[in-house]
Amino acid sequence: MSRAWRGWAAACCALLVLAIGGPGSAAPLLDALGREASLALVGRVVGVSEHAGGALRTYAIEPVQVFRGRSPDSLSLLEERPAIVPWAAVGETLLLLLSRAPSHSFFREHLPAGVYFIPVAQRDGVIPLEADRFDLAAAILAASPPKEGQGPDLPLVRRELQSGQERLALDGVHRLVRQAKPDAELTPLDIAAVRTCLDDARVGTMAKRELVRWLGARPVSDARTVLEGWRPASAELHGERVEALAAHGKPPDPEASARHLVDSDPEFRRLGIREVALEPTPENLRTLGLLALGDPEPDIRIEAIEGLGRTDHPRAVTILQRTFESDAPDLRRASARALSRMSDGHAEAAFLDLVLYGESYDVQRYALMLLLAEGVSRDDPRIERIQREHPDDRIRALLVHGIQRGPH
């Protein structure tokens, strides 16, 4: 047994001692592990094998004492994407907290026929024990009765979140969104799996973005705790974290936002824009307006325009009407999107003004198309006003003959 593994074993035994201390124990994770296990036993490792070119590792286990569940005569422990150092060596005695391995075609193709189990929470469910310390194993399991009527398969969700694969992690996020009760606190195991997924460099932005947005929408304290402890590796995910924390009542740090706005990296400048848009103070609206109207980088101008729309503030409307009149099609379309997402009729009023007073025919025509797209009918008094007062007969003709869509 290596020195590192002996240290791990000693730490686990120490935690086991804490875990049997009764209510208020300092080891809630081990308590949760015990509750999740469908099969709990002390077993001895009698063989270690690798399969599928090293993608899978199995441990043949000889049961010594079963505490929960029914152990098959031939029990195999499965390690997916195995670490360089095996969980255990032949001859070691382990407390195993297990659940049945899922039935995947990959497993059926590469593993010998048999019954396979996986540890709860991966390596955390494999706990080295001295051969005569069954009392510790019995005590923790007696203090952690299995869950009854567990309902959603959150153990499967945890395995997917901790898989280190983008597709599986995304599946786990989708299951979590569907299955977890919105107002229920997560268990320590669930929180550990969520943190593992967020911290795993092998999991891409898509899964992490959806997971952070789900955390932002949860009205419970565990979501904020996870978000506050996470340090994203990219500006985009940092922005998602900031918005999720804002939903929990924690506004962005103004000093950090100011630094981001002048950063040399465009990604962090966009992050700064997202941050100031969350707090539509007069100063922040002024900052967004200056960026939307005059920044030399088109992408920054578009980000500022979209940020103005997210503020849903009446003072943003005037700025967005000015950016709508830009000659650049991308800026005009971004302005249209930003106005359309605003509430309280701001979009309809803005589009009507642009139809009547826009600087060019193209601006007026596009604004009229958007005004009609907002659901304003042709017999609406505002449309009748355009028909009656507009000085350009081409615009009035559009109300009679219809608008043919074209580039804007």
Could you walk me through the main structural features you see in this protein, from its secondary elements to its overall organization?
The protein has 408 residues and is α+β, with helices and mostly antiparallel strands. It has 20 helices and 6 strands. The protein has a 5-stranded mixed β-barrel. Helix 1 packs across helix 4 (134-143) and helix 5 packs parallel to helix 7. The radius of gyration is 30 Å and the shape is elongated. The N and C termini lie far apart (70 Å).
Using only C-alpha atoms, the radius of gyration works out to 30 Å
Order of helices and strands: HHEEEEHEEHHHHHHHHHHHHHHHHH
- As residue ranges, the low-confidence spans are 1-27, 146-152
The backbone outline, from C-alpha atoms, is elongated
End-to-end gap:
70 Å
Number of strands: 6
The SS-based structural class is: alpha+beta
Fraction in helix: 40-55%
Fraction of residues in β-strands: 5-15%
Largest sheet features: 5 strands, mixed, barrel
Give the spatial strand order of the biggest sheet: 1-2-3-5-4
Mean residue pLDDT: 81
By DSSP (H or I, 4+ residues per run), the number of helices equals 20
Concise account of the structure shown:
By secondary structure, the protein is an alpha+beta fold. The chain is 55% helix and 12% strand.
What's the structural blueprint in terms of helices and strands?
Blueprint: H1 3-19, H2 28-36, E1 39-51, E2 56-68, E3 75-80, E4 93-100, H3 105-110, E5 115-119, E6 126-128, H4 134-143, H5 154-161, H6 166-179, H7 188-199, H8 205-217, H9 221-229, H10 235-247, H11 254-261, H12 266-277, H13 282-294, H14 298-311, H15 314-324, H16 329-340, H17 346-357, H18 361-373, H19 381-389, H20 393-401
Parallel strand pairs: 3-5
Antiparallel strand pairs: 1-2, 1-4, 2-3, 4-5, 4-6
Helix pairs in contact: 1-4, 5-6, 5-7, 6-8, 8-10, 10-12, 11-12, 12-14, 13-14, 13-15, 14-15, 14-16, 15-16, 15-17, 17-18
